Amino acid sequence: MSSFSRPSLSTSTLRPLARLHRPLVWYAGSMVALALVSAVGVVVDDRILVGVPIWTKPLKFSVSLFAYALSLAWMLSFLAPLSRAHRIGWWAGTVVAVTGAGEMVLVTLQVIRGTQSHFNQETPFDAALFQTMGATIAVLWFASLAIAVLLLRARILDRATAWAVRLSSLIALAGSAVGFLMVGPTPDQLAVDDSPIIGAHSVGVPDGGPSMTLTGWSTTGGDLRVPHFFGMHALQLLPLLLLVLTALAPRFARLADERFRLRVTLTAAGMYAATFALLTWQALRGQALFSPDGATLAAAGAIALLGAAATALPLRTPSPAPAPAPAPSEEVPA
Fold first, then answer.
1. Is 274 helix (H, G, I), strand (E, B) or coil?
2. How far apart are CA 25 and CA 214, in angstroms?
3. What is the pTM (predicted TM-score) of this model?
4. Model confidence over 184-194: pLDDT tens digits?
5. 210 in helix, strand or coil?
6. Distances from the Cα of 312 to the Cα of 21, 246, 260, angstroms
7. Residue 292, SS3?
8. I want to staple 58 with a disulfide (CB 3.0 to 4.6 A). Which of 23, 38, 125, 144 is the partner?
9. Planar angle of CA 213, 214, 220, nearest 5 degrees
10. H-run or E-run covering 174
11. Per-residue exposure over 43-78, b if at least 16 CB sit within 10 Å of its own CB, e if not
């Protein structure tokens, strides 16, 4: 028998699809509906807010949260059915769905009212809405933390899948936490009494300046939305990498080795985490994504070199050869 087996998409990587967390799936479906409404709003509503069409924010949020909710629903399916961890995970996932839906209701309400949802302190009502949004996000983050802890303790047969799920959930938590860096007042806001806006996405420049067409990220200063987005979507990208490796395994014998897939997964997670840290550092120093200084470029080069070396190592390490079949026993003549 071979010392390793060829995986397929019907193995433990995809089997939990039959047990998706229903509240998160419903939440993901509601985000699809909101994305469609927001897309129509971008086309038919000519209002501009903070330099972009007013429906841009709910459109971007709903697409992002759709992917986030489905990924969490899939990951929760790895918890053993009827176990205590499964019950805790179900409630934690439901909290994520409810608080995430509440967040989007408030964002959409402010769009309808024609005013800014995040950082808005212009009226007591606006301030109360933003404080409520902050509370819902904090609850969502701690519920996601509980899910990450459960996944760290979950017994998942395929080790590559296990670590893709665990590490991507931890990186996504760190990416989500970047949002908390946005709520502090900027130096310009501190210089003004009773500023109507407290907090910003950008660093070193005011929000609403020159920005990228699709993302809205600043092109003249740092933007904390870059690491926020990149970190949160580790939840999809790292498991997606593993699914691709698993799908290609029948064609490439090397990918059928579970230990090889595990090494590639750990290397990719390490590079992803390092890149996330670099993007956060770059944004906090007030640099636009595509205007890095020498220190940023040097750090990016170091990540690329270390990642290439770590990737080459498992490629050069030979896979274990299949065990030879036992020789047929010779019959002894009577």
1. helix
2. 26
3. 0.85
4. 888 888 888 88
5. coil
6. 38, 19, 11
7. coil
8. 38
9. 50
10. helix 159-177
11. eeeeeebbebbbbbbbbbbbbbbbbbbbbbbbbbbb
